[in-house]
Amino acid sequence: MIIGSGDNRYEWIDDWGKFPDSQSARDGWAHHGMVVTGDGRIFAFHPGDPTMLIFNSDGELLSSWDAPVREAHQMALEVDGDNEYLWIADPGSKNMKANGSYEPAIGERGGQVIKTTLDGRVLLQITQPDHEVYKDGKFAPTSVTILDNGDVWVSDGYGESYIHRYTATGEYLGSISGEEGEAGRFNCPHGVWIDRRKSEPELYVADRTNHRVQVYDIDGNYRRVFGSDVLTSPSNFAEDGDQIIVGELRARLAVFDINDNFVCYIGENEGIARVERNSPEDVPGWPNNFDADGNVIRSRILEPGKFNSPHGLAADADGNLYSGEWLVGGRYTKLVKQ
């Protein structure tokens, strides 16, 4: 199946990621990120277990390892010379099944960001910064990105809607809240990403509940905002040449050019993307469904060629896209660039 238009056409590979069937895989509510390494391996996460999954480009499971996180909510790859490292943002809780429903279950480690080797050895842990907002607030990181000098930007998207900067060794440097510029306060800054397409890198923020992307320089100075006329739920970023792909949790990907101009949507499911969550027109139980007794079950309306809830997003060197969706049992899709 071919989706998209113009220079953004893809072959949709449904159920791309192959991993062993189990009760935890069927019942687990997937909610994770994805990255692609320099040698083309795709790192994703198990729907129910705290297990990193490593696939080849054909979706075959190469290896796995247990991760000391509640969930790998978003991930980033750090390249340091010939070495690569994995950074994982863990909000510290996960929707777990109990008596037919799903409730947030708090992990023993709380919100954290960890740095690991590609085989799972933990090298660094970042926890709640020394900031006054956490006197009564919680730290629940949703995303992480790495500067060329090794500094780390961490987005507290599910906590206090701040973004914090740390050194490569985890020393807290400072924070931004969105109030630095004309766009205003962040509301669930779900994803952060360093844009290196131009001569001067910039920090992109998926300001999800505000339906927009805010852009800062790498030192945290406000630059501009875009996307509020075409975005509903920006959550993550991937790069394809001069274009960026913004993953929207409400059932589509949005493509922008190097000047932040909107190009097109990919894989849009209009019945989900064009309504507000919990409105009368919404899919009951989205991103899942309900059974006859009102229990949460895996979505019955998943269609090849249409997204349901893309949460993890990554691109390889050939412009192919990989998506992991937020729903019971997960859904792992590859879009092959045409």
Give the name of the CATH architecture: 6 Propeller
At the third CATH level, what is the topology name?
Answer: Neuraminidase
- Count of helix runs: 2
* The CATH H-level homologous superfamily: TolB, C-terminal domain
Q: What top-tier CATH class fits best?
A: Mainly Beta
Structural class of the secondary elements? Answer: mainly beta
Overall shape: it is globular
Uncertain parts: none
Number of domains: 1
**Mean pLDDT metric:** 96
State the strand order across the main sheet.
Answer: 1-2-29-28-27
Main sheet? 5 strands, antiparallel
- Portion in strands: 35-45%
Protein described:
The chain is mainly β and 338 residues long. The chain has one domain: TolB, C-terminal domain (Neuraminidase, 6 Propeller), CATH 2.120.10.30. 3% of the residues lie in helices and 45% in strands. It is built from 2 helices and 29 strands. It has helices at 23-27, 270-273; strands at 2-5, 8-13, 35-36, 42-45, 51-55, 61-66, 74-80, 83-90, 93-98, 101-106, 112-116, 122-126, 143-146, 152-156, 162-166, 172-176, 189-195, 202-207, 212-217, 222-226, 234-240, 243-248, 252-256, 262-266, 289-290, 296-297, 310-315, 321-325, 332-337. The strands form 8 sheets. A 5-stranded antiparallel sheet has the order 1-2-29-28-27, with no helix packed on it. A hairpin with a 5-residue loop joins β25 (289-290) and β26 (296-297).
